[in-house]
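Sync notes, pocket subgroup
Present: LS, DG
LS reminded everyone that the earlier model was apo-only. Rerun requested with coenzyme A included. Inputs:
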Amino acid sequence: MYLYGASGHAKVIIDILSAKGIKVDALIDDDVTIDELMSIPVLHQWEGQSPLVVSVGNNISRKQIVERLGSECEYVTAVHPSANISSYARIGAGTVVMQGSTIQSGAQIGRHCIINTNSSIDHECIIDDYVHISPQATLCGNVHVGMGAWIGAATVIIPGVRIGRWSIIGAGSVVVNDIPDGVVAYGNPCQIKSQRIDIASSSYGSSVVKSKKIAIYGAGGLGREVAGGINRINKACNEHWHLVGFYDDSIPVGSLVSHYGQVIGKMDDLNAVDGPLALAIAVGSPTSRKLIHERILNPNIYFPNLIAPSFKVLDPETFKIGQGNIIQNSCSVTCDVTIGDFNVFNGFNVMGHDDVIGDFNVLMPNVHLSGSVTIGDCNLLGVGSIVLQQIKIGDNITLGAGSVLMTKPKDGCTYIGVPAKKFDFK
Ligand SMILES: CC(C)(COP(=O)(O)OP(=O)(O)OC[C@H]1O[C@@H](n2cnc3c(N)ncnc32)[C@H](O)[C@@H]1OP(=O)(O)O)[C@@H](O)C(=O)NCCC(=O)NCCS
């Protein structure tokens, strides 16, 4: 039995193995000044010695060593006899479980993790590879800790929370909301304090954290909805966005936007951003969305589609979509649907066959479009409104909530009722 890394962490692992009657034959360490640890010889070259545990506390270094040793090396677990481990839990190779820890039913612990002294991992938690759960940390049920994250001592994470990859949660924190990839967060309630510079700036780090920076223009209600949508996308997909904050010209810089982040600047600041930044325009008025887009002159800003994982496309082969669209929960399209740029689908929108939707339109929740509907630009369709088949809508119309549009409307006018009639504001 061998350990890679002759550190204080190795001393604990030697003790764990000895409690199980396993003798450590030697340690391996790159530091040539260390010759022995607890009377065990330290070698300075790995020459195929197995089985092995990488006994290095730093998560990034542990991963680098495992990658360096390659697939030839056999890894084993080191679990202290005083740990309470459910027979329905799974623990990956190379993982160390220290004295007094509890791992409950259905928990899945990845490879090369450290489950430190007296920590508690409750039912159905998922702990990805290279994670360190520090002493006395308490993870309630169904928590997911992403690869390489470090959970500080005595931290509490409430049920169902997701911790992003390679993030650090400071000692004593109480985590009540999801934490994105690659950040340092701490406190009660736990809040994001900074991005991990060591991860972001190193070439190794950039390969382990694949999240892309995104900001939201608009710190109002739609901005918060879009932020929540980004969290859901991060949970469900391989795509990982790191929300850096909100831009808004009418809300002071530094204002908190719920638990999602802060207002970090105005339009001028956005136009001065000097690296690639994805942006979602989260403003509900179609014409304002268009004007805001026209004022963004910075070529570093790009506009991804933010599509809720629940979006259903009956026929992906015939579905076309541009850029900058926001598609919220439970929307669906059937076949031969074309969507342009910068539209907002606010949830539960249904679009039938051959619908063609232009740019900068906003469809409030539960808008239903029948088949072969054509919509131009900058239209606002109110909550629960319906457009009947083959109707052609031009530009800048407003359709009142609950209305049913049965005839072609005139550009720039408002239509209300069932059937929808032109409404003249006096
Ligand atoms: C979160 C952490 C990584 C931040 O480290 P850091 O970037 O070096 O931060 P600093 O020590 O420079 O502190 C910066 C500020 O944050 C505060 N701070 C740091 N950690 C904090 C924590 N866990 N909770 C609350 N505040 C914290 C400091 O008081 C300081 O505040 P100030 O600017 O008002 O003086 C570190 O403090 C931490 O908690 N590490 C986990 C340790 C652990 O659990 N080890 C287990 C080993 S088995």
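DG: The chain has four domains: 2-72, 82-199, 212-303, 307-423.
LS: The pocket of coenzyme A is lined by residues 116, 134-135, 152-153, 168, 170-172, 184, 186-187 (CB under 6 Å).
Action: DG to write up.
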